[in-house]
Design brief:
Structural class of chain A: alpha/beta
CATH topology of chain A: Transcription Regulator spoIIAA
Chains: A alpha/beta (107), B alpha+beta (138), C alpha/beta (267)
Order of helices and strands of chain C: EEEHEEHEHHHEHEHEEHHH
CATH architecture of chain A: 2-Layer Sandwich
Number of helices of chain C: 10
Oligomer: heterotrimer
CATH class of chain A: Alpha Beta
CATH superfamily of one domain in chain C: P-loop containing nucleotide triphosphate hydrolases
Helix content of chain A: 25-40%
Shape of chain C: globular
Number of domains of chain A: 1
Number of strands of chain C: 10
Helix content of chain C: 25-40%
Number of helices of chain A: 3
Distance between the termini of chain A: 29 Å
Strand content of chain A: 25-35%
Largest interface: B-C, 34 and 39 residues
CATH architecture of one domain in chain C: 3-Layer(aba) Sandwich
CATH superfamily of chain A: STAS domain
């Protein structure tokens, strides 16, 4: 798994590439929470993510909750394939804010 | 019942990727569609994750044995560890336990697989987790 | 000494915890001799935990469990081991040792617990193999058997000692429909031929309706109902009707509450 952090409008984008599992989800957690604690809303780009396990999902839940309590946004962008299936399986697709692509994000 | 995969791994998170790849290959060979393969790989990954975290408590020298069998109507995945014996009730999921360590993963395993249970290991050492999934139709 | 309970299984006020979690909440169960009792419930209902208590593999938080007159919670190892010899257990996957032939697997309890002559043991083994439609398969390895055959071999091993009481965990799980029906018929045959009491734990409704004298349904660690097949079918309990008609659980999600549950564990 590699991650890349960029900016889009007033959002920080965290693009996850490859596979998130128990081995590297702590890295994702650290990064995500740091962005939110800096007071910035975040777009988590799933478009190049091929796998996410429950520790990754738990990280997103934690971050989503922190965002909500801090009146920030956490949006998942472009989830497809296995990661989308996991979100559906956990019913979190009905909880998280999800969009198909960055074009759907308005300032 | 035909043994189609037998692999051994160390109880280390760096192995998870290999385990998923192996499970994916086995599932492809059994004719599962991509959507099922994704989920089965997730279920096995979650089970291994729990073994690494809770059975071996992070002891990377522990061993995990993965066996995949193809039976008449189902695939059977056996995960064996050689840690302290756990109780069957550890495998039960309640909605309230989602925040307990491993709870969410356990729920995923139950949702994905048709049957999840511990079977008694031959020499009473360690645990064998048996996960079954119906084979694809047709 | 508590007065001798009537049924071959008598459970009163069974409470069981896993850590802080209450798995069984005040369960009463009474099974009569010669009865086929099916224990049903979904994943997480506590049915496996109940089975493990009946097998004296777990210690309850409170309550009493008598099996064939033995207080299994408080008895000593020796009495328990004697009771186990009168009890057969067929696990879901057969759990045969892969390094031994089918015949050797089935013989194992006789070799371990009796001093019978090898010839006698061989003949007893073949009798059971015949009964299970496995004649001629005794020299095969478990890996050479199909799923249905493995299950029958597991059953043969469970009944090799002619137990009074047979526990069967998920007999038809994962079997194709024809094999599942055959296995159900075998259970009925065994009860009739050997006057066994059979306790079957399953989530397969069709099988339960076919073989049960009585069905006990567990929900969330509590007994929702115990009754005959007709009583279950006619129950007005919505959860039972959902189980029978396999209605999917309500899929709408209260996002707010779900996140709270996930992050705090509280509703």
């Amino acid at each position: 798994m590699v991650y890349q952090q960029t900016k889009h409008l007033h959002y920080q984008i965290l693009k996850l590439t490859g596979e998130v599992d128990l081995h590297n989800s702590p890295q994702v957690r650290k990064q995500l929470l740091a962005i939110l604690k800096n007071g910035s809303s975040v777009l988590v780009d799933f478009s190049s993510l091929s796998y996410i396990d429950s520790s990754g999902i738990a990280t997103l839940v934690e971050a989503f909750n922190l965002a909500k309590n801090s009146k920030l946004l956490l949006t998942i962008v472009g989830a497809v394939g296995a990661p989308l299936q996991v979100l559906e399986l956990t019913n979190l697709n009905k909880v998280f804010h999800m969009v198909d692509s960055l074009d759907d994000i308005k300032g | 019942m035909k043994l189609i995969r037998y692999e051994q791994y160390n109880a280390c998170t760096t192995q998870l990727c290999k385990i998923r790849t192996e499970v994916r290959f086995a599932c492809q060979a059994m004719g599962y569609p991509e959507t099922d393969i994704n989920l089965i790989a997730l279920a096995i990954d979650e089970a291994c994750t729990n073994i690494i975290r809770f059975a071996y408590c992070g002891d990377k020298s522990g061993r995990i044995v993965l066996e995949v069998y193809q039976a008449e109507s189902q695939a059977i995945f056996l995960l064996r560890d050689f840690a302290e014996c756990i109780e069957e009730s550890c495998l039960e999921v309640k909605s309230k336990c989602l925040t307990e360590p491993g709870g969410l993963g356990l729920q995923l395993i139950h949702q994905i697989m048709d049957s999840v249970q511990l079977i008694p290991p031959p020499d009473s050492v360690g645990n064998i987790l048996e996960l079954k999934k119906r084979l694809p139709q047709g | 000494m508590t007065s001798a309970p009537q049924g071959i299984i008598e459970v009163k006020g069974l409470v069981s915890h896993y850590g802080k979690r209450k798995i069984l909440k005040n369960v009463d169960l009474s099974v009569q001799k010669g009865e086929i009792r099916v224990i049903m419930g979904g994943s997480g209902s506590g049915k496996s935990t109940l089975l493990n208590h009946l097998l004296a593999l777990l210690k309850p938080t409170s309550g009493s469990i008598f099996v064939d007159g033995v207080d299994v919670v408080n008895t000593d190892r020796k009495t328990l081991s004697k009771l186990r010899q009168k009890t057969g257990v067929a696990f879901q996957s057969g759990a045969l040792f892969s390094s031994m032939t089918v015949g050797e697997n089935i013989k194992l309890p006789l070799k371990r617990h009796t001093r019978l002559d090898d010839h006698t043991i061989d003949i007893m083994t073949r009798l059971k193999l015949e009964l299970m439609n496995l004649a001629g398969f005794e020299d095969l390895m478990p890996s050479e058997l199909s799923g249905g055959m493995l299950k029958r071999a597991g059953l043969a091993r469970a009944v090799i000692m002619d137990p009074k009481l047979l526990f069967f965990d998920e007999p038809s799980a994962g079997l194709d429909p024809v094999t599942a029906v055959e296995l159900d018929e075998l259970i009925l045959k065994l009860r009739d031929a050997m006057n066994m009491t059979v306790v079957v734990v399953t989530h397969e409704l069709e099988s339960a309706f076919k073989i049960a004298d009585k069905i006990t349904v567990l929900f969330d660690g509590e007994i929702a109902i115990t009754g005959t097949v007709d009583e279950i079918k006619n129950s007005r309990d919505e959860r039972i009707q959902n189980l029978i008609n396999r209605r999917p659980r309500n899929e709408t999600v209260d996002a707010e509450q779900y996140i709270k549950r996930l992050t705090t564990g509280k509703n």
